[in-house]
Amino acid sequence: MDVNPQEVKQVASQILAGMLANPHIYPKVSDEGGQGQQEQELIVVAVEMAKKLLEKIEQTN
C-alpha cells in the first residue's frame, strides 16, 4: 500500500494535537520545550498511529 506522505502528516498532526491536549498521557512539558525526548516520542507515536490508521482505511476500501 502506498501511503501519501501528506495524508500521514495531516493525520499525525491531528493525533498529536489530541495527545498534547490530553495532559493525562504525559506528566509535564519537558524543559527542552517541544524538542525534548518526551515530545519526540509523542511525535513518533502519532506518526505510527497515523500510518496504521491510513493502512486500515485502505484495507477496508
Automatic annotation (TrEMBL):
<protein>
    <submittedName>
        <fullName>Uncharacterized protein</fullName>
    </submittedName>
</protein>
